[in-house]
Design brief:
714 residues; alpha/beta; eight-stranded mixed β-barrel; five-stranded antiparallel sheet; Rev_trsase/Diguanyl_cyclase; PAS-like_dom_sf; EAL domain-containing protein; EAL_sf
């Protein structure tokens, strides 16, 4: 079945045609251009498949590079034109509907693999030619006089027709013969090249062993050597070569000549440098990227004794707002300007700036005195961000939060240093941003512990590591136990028993608070049923009410009402035995949609308590619209009542709140009662119920049953 007019096969062939037109003029093939383009079609197909396959295989690129050498594309210009063609057209014609960024990255890796395969194949061909030349030279010395002419003719054919540069010199370094390829590489005439001594071809980038190996060879101590060497051309440019020098001996085995074979690797070296730069630098800002930064950081941390490092981890404050409001293009221009400013802050020796990704940057300083230089570097960065940045006619104010880590080399790994800097940066951001903070090992340890608890929460619920303690609710009038508040605890395998303030915020942040809250509600209601049965079932003097806390996340969960109804029905507990506590802060400014599930629960008979009342600065008039039946007065109002006499101002405030609550038919519960004097004063003020250490600390459900039993029996 033929492909569609503009199907993948047509686009593939167009790519091969463009490739053939670019490369054919610099090939040594005997094929016509259409025949050559037909040879390129299967190579183009392999590149297309490698570009789009799920698991990237560099072997395909290497094989295509080697195939070019087999197709007689041995001129360095052929590789350069091939890579330019692949870079410009491969993704366009063969990328399909894939992710553009990923396809371009794959194309770059394919180019690198092609260059490596091309170099490998060309090197193998060079070595084969070298062997042929060496064998021809040896045969030329050992043949009988009658075959000398034929042997020299064969040697001359190989010598002149080779694609690599070849030169012969005596042991003093005088150049005797050179081929045309070598003359083209150096851009010199044969006379000019032969007037130079081998020892004159020095270059500052010569490896230390270059001339040691040369001396050993001309003395007859080695047969050959191979290395990478640079040469100066007459125009001042640099020629990079793969150089192989071999020693030629006479019939008696005495050293006589040196034979040099040079492969021009200048274009390949420039390509490798370009690919290395692209692999280690951020495409948007031109700054070193995460990989390059980690190389430098690892080197700094492995420095010798007496060396230190300082690191500034920067995250822009509110950058997401720029992207959301002005678009990602504007955000990119902002990042480029920020990168330029940061680059100007790190110009001293041992300093560098890198972009880790997104709006996160890092600055590194090294040396023996980074305690001072890192603070100065952080200050320069903050000052560099003061001036507004113009983007699309708008002046944008840019601020940042910086975490600073400083210390001696050799004590921490790069991952540990960056983690500490990240933690410190978020500490600066949580403190309001636009500032820098110094790393604190204790704060790091707390953050790491929080992270560990966060990741362990889901499994902890599955493994049954949570349990509930109950704190009695006591009637201030007669001292009887009327119920209890359920307080969840976590029995952590390493940290022991954890109170709610250690893990409830983490559960809210991760969303696990919904299943955890549902579990607490069901367990608490079942416990209320057990208490009721142990007190005599339906003939009991009154149910022991159970108070269960609801988090803001649970309030907005659509299954709250149905979950509560299902739990009450399964356990056989009446709704009036349940009280759900909601913090005042969660209901400040609540709209009707948020209050709707609470109203439905209240209409069923479930009591709703407004917890921590007095801490949220809410409008007291709003109490009329909230479906609450209980106010739980925060302990901050009653702490002064632990001693007698109490603060008159606190007495007036509590008295006013109690009066207001009662006028609205709301009961008042007080938290944190710790002394008898405090309990008595609250009773006089008209508070209804109380809880606190004066009555009992939170404990197992059996203790509450015992307290209630004592009340019931007098």
């Amino acid at each position: 079945m033929s492909a569609e007019p503009d199907g993948p096969e047509d686009r593939l062939r167009r790519f091969a045609t463009i490739w053939g037109r670019a490369v054919f003029p610099v090939t040594s093939t005997s094929s016509t251009r259409p025949e050559f383009e037909k040879q390129l079609v299967p190579l183009a197909r392999r590149l297309s498949e490698a570009l789009r396959t799920r698991a990237f295989d560099p072997g395909t690129g290497k094989a295509v590079g080697a195939a070019l050498v087999e197709a007689h594309c041995t001129d360095p210009e052929a590789l350069s034109r091939t890579l330019d063609c692949v870079d410009a057209y491969l993704v366009l014609y063969c990328g399909g509907d894939g992710d553009g960024e990923d396809l371009r990255a794959r194309s770059a890796r394919l180019q690198h693999a092609m260059a490596a395969g091309y170099a490998q194949a060309l090197r193998e061909r060079t070595l084969a030619e070298q062997e042929a030349i060496a064998q021809a030279a040896l045969r030329a010395q050992g043949v009988v006089a009658q075959a000398l002419h034929a042997t020299e003719a064969r040697f001359r054919a190989v010598f002149e027709g080779a694609a690599i540069g070849i030169g012969i010199a005596d042991l003093k370094g005088n150049v005797l013969q050179v081929n045309a390829a070598l003359l083209r590489m150096f851009g010199l005439s044969e006379q000019s090249l032969r007037s130079r001594s081998v020892r004159e071809w020095t270059h500052p980038d010569d490896a230390p062993q270059t001339w040691v190996l040369y001396d050993e060879l001309v003395r007859g101590e080695r047969e050959h050597y191979h290395l990478e060497k640079a040469f100066y051309r007459p125009d001042g440019t640099v020629l990079w070569t793969n150089l192989t020098v071999s020693l030629l001996r006479d019939a008696d085995g005495e050293p006589q000549y040196q034979l040099a074979l040079m492969e021009d690797t200048t274009e390949r070296r420039l390509l490798n440098l370009r690919l290395r730069y692209e692999a280690t630098h951020d495409a948007l800002t031109g700054l070193p990227n995460r990989a390059f930064f980690f190389e430098r950081l690892e080197k700094a941390l492995s420095a010798g004794e007496g060396q230190r490092f300082g690191l500034c981890y920067l995250d822009l404050d509110g950058f997401k707002t720029v992207n959301d409001s002005l678009g990602h293009a504007a955000g990119d221009r902002l990042l480029v300007e920020v990168a330029d400013r940061l680059q100007s802050c790190a110009t001293a020796p041992g300093e560098m700036v890198a972009r880790l990704g997104g709006d996160e940057f890092v600055a590194l300083t090294t040396g023996p005195d980074t305690q001072h230089t890192v603070d100065e570097l952080a200050t320069r960065i903050m000052n560099a961000l003061l001036a507004p940045i113009g983007v699309d006619g708008r002046d944008l104010t840019v601020r940042g939060s910086i975490g600073v880590v400083e210390g001696p080399a050799g004590e921490r790994s790069p991952a540990e240093v960056l983690r500490s800097a990240d933690i410190t940066m978020y500490r600066a951001k949580s403190a309001g941003g636009n500032r820098f903070e110094l790393a604190d090992p204790e704060a790091d340890a707390r953050a790491i512990t929080r992270h560990g608890l966060t990741t362990a929460l889901p499994a902890a619920l599955e493994r049954g590591e949570f349990f509930i303690e109950y704190q009695p609710l006591v009637h201030l009038g007669d001292g009887s136990v009327r119920g209890a508040e359920a307080l969840v605890r976590w029995l952590h395998p390493q940290h022991g028993v954890l109170s709610p303030d250690r893990f409830i915020p983490l559960a809210e942040h991760t969303g696990l608070i919904v299943p955890l809250g549902r579990w607490v509600l069901e367990q608490s209601v079942r416990q209320a049923r057990t208490w009721q049965e142990r007190r005599g079932g339906a003939d009991a003097p009154g149910p022991l009410r159970i108070n269960v806390n609801l988090s803001p996340c649970q309030l907005t969960h659509p299954g709250l009402v149905q979950d509560t109804v299902d739990i009450l029905e399964r356990t056989g507990v009446e709704p009036d035995a349940l009280c759900l506590e909601v913090t005042e802060s969660a209901l400040i400014g609540a709209d009707d949609d948020l209050l709707k599930p609470l109203r439905r629960l209240a209409e069923m008979g479930v009591d709703i308590a407004l917890d921590d009342f007095g801490t949220g600065y809410s409008n007291l008039a709003n109490l009329r619209r909230l479906p609450v039946s209980v106010l739980k007065l925060d302990r901050s109002f009653t702490q002064s009542m632990q001693q007698f006499p109490a603060d008159p101002v606190d007495l007036k405030i509590v008295e006013g709140i109690v009066s207001l609550a009662h006028s609205l038919d709301l009961a008042v519960t007080v938290e944190g009662v710790e002394t008898g004097a405090q309990a008595e004063q609250l009773r006089i003020l008209g508070c209804d119920t109380a809880q606190g250490w004066y009555y009992a600390r939170p404990g197992p459900p059996e203790r509450l049953h015992e307290l209630a039993l004592v009340d019931a029996t007098g």
